[in-house]
Write a structure and sequence with these properties.
This protein is α+β, with helices and mostly antiparallel strands. It is 36% helix and 23% strand. The structure holds adenosine-5'-diphosphate and magnesium ion.
Length: 352
């Protein structure tokens, strides 16, 4: 009898535990499949940042992610004093500056893309960027003389990197590093790393259109990400792409530009050889890649290369794809994403 009673209790216990386990897993299921993630939006690194967690409800984790972004801004910005990049720039033509390992590798990556594009992307573009100052209230169209004076200061060949000391030297006074074309991608990757290390498996990080998807959607399907319409700055999309564990980064004419009195617009991707914005048939390029740092640098670089050279360039890089949008509303995609990209706006024509 005693034994029987004990067995009875034992079964009740087991049953209760099973019910509890079932309820916990159910509530997790409910949370996972719910459409409303834990989201936060803030202005940092010169742009609107949104982080959306689909399998975590930790406000504290979001605090840490945004603190990390502020930390990175204090390292990478050229619009703040005493950042690491600002210090390197202040010592241009004077002395090499030792920097932390992560920043050193980012600058080295900037140099890599400068070399890869023979200087269409140039990490020392700073003097021209500051001269135009597009995106800031003091933006203006410089005189030819002002541009001519700055051109000799933009040349990645004049930058020396020392792997043994992690030091960076800009060889001429007045030179300025500018990580504007790669920094947001790097920051995106750093946030993805932080969130993953804390067990996040489903999340979207968006740094002003520089997007990274962690994992897939909670229902195990690909994330559907809108591709920016380069003619509409209000954030509407012209197509969608399905991705997971990948980044999509767009460079285009819409983001930052100024308009002259005669109506001519000047956007913010500058040709290091002329000092003026690149003018080609492209309105925008979106890069799909595993690393957002690569995607960011490549979006700026590919925009600079134009449609034909840009297509060849991206097809030559393994694991990287692109969507090109021309000024006459034509859309071209590279071979790797033909099935993932869907046009949703009938003003555009898909030309694959
Ligand atoms: P955004 O940062 O506005 O999203 P991009 O990633 O295309 O757009 O980067 C543009 C930024 O890159 C500019 O604001 C400037 O800081 C920098 N930049 C402009 N022209 C070049 C260039 N030829 N090479 C490298 N960086 C550039
Ligand atoms: Mg870029």
């Amino acid at each position: 009898m005693q034994i029987h009673h004990k067995t009875h209790l034992f079964f009740i216990l087991i049953l209760t535990s099973l019910v509890v386990i079932f309820l916990i897993s159910c509530s997790k299921e409910i949370h996972l499949s719910s459409k409303t993630p834990l989201s936060r939006q803030n202005f940092v690194l010169g742009t609107i940042v949104t982080i959306s967690l689909y399998d975590s409800d930790s406000e504290e984790l979001l605090d840490r992610a945004f603190n990390k972004l502020t930390e990175l801004e204090n390292i990478l910005s050229i619009n703040k004093t005493n950042t690491v990049i600002d210090t390197i720039n202040h010592h241009a033509g004077i002395t090499p500056v030792e920097v932390d390992e992560a920043t050193y590798h980012l600058i080295k990556k900037g140099l890599y893309y400068s070399e890869l594009t023979s200087g269409a992307f140039d990490i020392t573009i700073g003097p021209l960027v500051k001269l135009w100052n597009i995106g800031f209230p003091s933006a203006h169209i410089p005189s030819q003389e002002e541009i001519t004076n700055k051109l000799p200061l933009v040349d990645y060949h004049l930058m020396t990197l020392d792997d043994s000391t992690h030091s960076v030297y800009l060889g001429k006074e007045g030179m300025l590093l500018d990580l504007g074309g790669i920094g947001k991608g790097y920051a995106t990757d750093e946030i993805a790393k932080l969130l993953r290390a804390e067990g996040v498996n489903h999340a979207i990080i968006n740094l002003g259109g520089n997007i990274y998807t962690i994992g897939d959607k909670p229902d195990n399907r690909l994330w559907t990400i809108g591709v920016q319409n380069p003619f509409n700055p209000n954030g509407d999309s012209m197509g969608t792409i399905g991705i997971s564990n990948q980044s999509i980064v767009t460079s285009g004419i819409y983001e930052r530009y100024i308009t002259a009195e005669d109506g001519t617009t000047y956007h913010h991707i500058l040709d290091p050889s002329t000092g003026y914005p690149f003018t080609n048939e492209l309105a925008g390029v979106s890069i799909i890649s595993d690393s957002s740092t690569d995607g960011d640098a490549l979006s700026t670089a590919t925009f600079a290369l134009g449609l034909e050279n840009g297509l060849t360039f991206i097809e030559s890089i393994d694991g990287v794809d692109a969507i090109f949008i021309t000024m006459d509303y034509k859309v071209y995609t590279t071979s790797g994403i033909k099935n993932q990209f869907k046009l949703t706006n009938s003003e555009f024509t898909l030309c694959n």
